[in-house]
Amino acid sequence: MESTLGLEIIEVVEQAAIASSRWMGKGEKNTADQVAVEAMRERMNRIHMRGRIVIGEGERDDAPMLYIGEEVGICTQPDARNYCNPDELLEIDIAVDPCEGTNLVAYGQNGSMAVLAISERGGLFAAPDFYMKKLAAPAAARGHVDINKSATENLKILSQCLNRSIEELVVVVMKRDRHIDLIKEIREAGARVRLISDGDVSAAISCAFSGTNVHALMGIGAAPEGVISAAAMRCLGGHFQGQLIYDPEVVKTGLIGESKEGNLARLKEMGIEDADRVYNADELASGETVLFAACGITPGTLMDGVRFFHGGARTQSLVISSQSKTARFVDTIHMFDEPQSLQLR
């Protein structure tokens, strides 16, 4: 999978990032997302694959592109047999977020990226469009910290695993009303808090890389993005746990569904019998081979954002593979017109 799709998926996220970045700072988050979706889908449909979107542009939306269940790839088109033998190709599941952090792009803030994860058919958890309680930490803490423990307990464990004082630890938390008590507890335990407005996929992955000064992600964010984070963390050997949140009173805002009871019924219809189950990275991204790719739209902890110059642009991407056990940073210059100069202005 990596040898046949590795470069292709990098180009998929690059094209989405370039398209979205043209709307950086213009206050149009929906447009920034729409153009990223269109660019990602157009590039996907030129790949020789049989892909199925399992996490996309909304479970209940009438999204015209990259909706859950949509088939993508040149070998899913009506004239597929003119290009390939679809029956011989590996079927893959794809989780996408063409513009992770639409508000970040709209207001010119750091941390937005185009991102996707792929695996064999059935290899990615088809998360409902709910929220998820998440805990991400470096590989050294894998299996030691636990989402069922308090933040204080986990910080003590993390301190021991990383051989750092609690005061040296930095925990990323999304700035939401539901996290007021969590933020207070982390600070009282002695750790430092880095608040973000959006984009917790980047924060989760940053935990797995030394030198980012991010040691944990705690709190509640979107469940689909939790699966994408888990895919990357599985490849990197980092710690990730997620637990679905179905009670609107816990999330306080934005949760699909009118009631706790209604959401529990929806989960049961989807085959999720244990609504309170805690999933780890291997369960959320269970495929034999998992690939993750991301490209910075705006500057972030791990990657630079898209930088335009006369006649082209420069991007920085990250592709992570469970197959080769690698994390590759890819610096690419895209030439739109006849190249006059490849130096950034």
Describe what this molecule looks like in 3D:
It is a single chain. The protein is an alpha+beta fold. 30% of the residues lie in helices and 26% in strands. It is built from ten helices and 14 strands. It has helices spanning 2-21, 29-44, 102-106, 151-162, 180-189, 200-206, 223-236, 248-251, 260-269, 281-284, and strands at 50-55, 71-72, 91-100, 113-120, 131-137, 170-174, 192-196, 216-222, 239-245, 278-280, 290-296, 307-309, 312-321, 326-335. The strands form two sheets. Strands 1, 2, 3, 4, 11, 12, 13 and 14 form an eight-stranded mixed sheet that branches. Strands 7-6-8-5-9-10 form a six-stranded mixed sheet, sandwiched between helices. Helix 1 (2-21) runs antiparallel to helix 2 and helix 6 runs parallel beside helix 7 (223-236). It is globular.
